[in-house]
Amino acid sequence: MNIYLEEGQVLEDSLVEKMEKAAAFLFEKEGVDAERAEVSLTLVEPEEIKELNAEYRDVDKVTDVLSFPQYEGVWDMPEEGELCLGDVVICVERAKEQAEEYGHSYEREFVYLFVHSLLHLLGYDHMEDEEKAVMREKEEMVMSHIDLER
After folding, report:
1. What is the structure's pLDDT at 89?
2. CATH number for the 2-145 domain, one of 3.30.70.2740, 3.40.50.1000, 3.40.390.30, 2.60.120.330?
3. How is 47-113 classified by DSSP, letter by letter?
4. Is residue 65 a contact partner of residue 88, using CB atoms and an 8 Å limit?
5. Fewer CB within 10 Å: N-end or C-end of the chain?
6. Which of 71, 62, 128 is nearest to 89 (CA)?
7. Global confidence as pTM
8. Contact 143, 113 (CB under 8 A)
9. Distance between CA atoms of 77 and 116, rounded to whole angstroms?
10. How far apart are alpha carbons 22 and 108 in whole angstroms?
11. What's the rounded mean pLDDT across residues 96-123?
């Protein structure tokens, strides 16, 4: 699994390791070849994610994470070659606020947002209650696997 950060952006090695471990576990469960998978990650300020949220989702407010999938879902992915799954945009300030609000670590919140976004890149959604329940179950399974459960 390759995570490409926007030029000039840096994450702690321990955080990247947790993200990679989470992705590898999730991809194994979903039948995606982690060796071929790539994700672009951009860290943004609240103003920028608000603009993106308004532009792409018609929601004029700050959000924590946005996902821009390359494919409709796992069924739509090529069987060979690189798998550029899409783009993940995380608002670091919002992640820190939520970590405090929910009473857990920034590491847990950040990795959770990343996992949530990966599920979107794999074709999952949470518009309906049933879909939301499936996503939550998968998120918690991955977070438990990497010892970052609630």
Report:
1. 98
2. 3.40.390.30
3. HHHHHHHHHHHS--S--SEEEEESSSSGGGS-SSS-EEEEEEEEEHHHHHHHHHHHTS-HHHHHHHH
4. yes
5. C
6. 62
7. 0.96
8. no
9. 19
10. 11
11. 97
Instruction: Quickly state the pLDDT bin for 125 (edges 50, 70, 90).
Output: very high
Structure tokens at 53: 């949220």
Domain spans of the chain, in order of start? 2-145
- Nearest of 79, 78, 65 to residue 118 by alpha carbon: 65
- Kindly give the pairing relationship between strand 65-69 and strand 37-44: unpaired
Q: Residue 107 corresponds to which amino acid?
A: E
Rounded average pLDDT over 33-48: 97
pLDDT at 149 over 90: no
| CA proximity to 95, closest of 17, 41, 141, 31 | 41
What are the Cα distances from residue 105, in Å, to 22, 38, 47, 139, 145?
16, 26, 23, 16, 17
User: In this structure, what token pair is assigned to residue 125?
Assistant: 């959604």
Residue 38 has pLDDT above 90, yes or no: yes
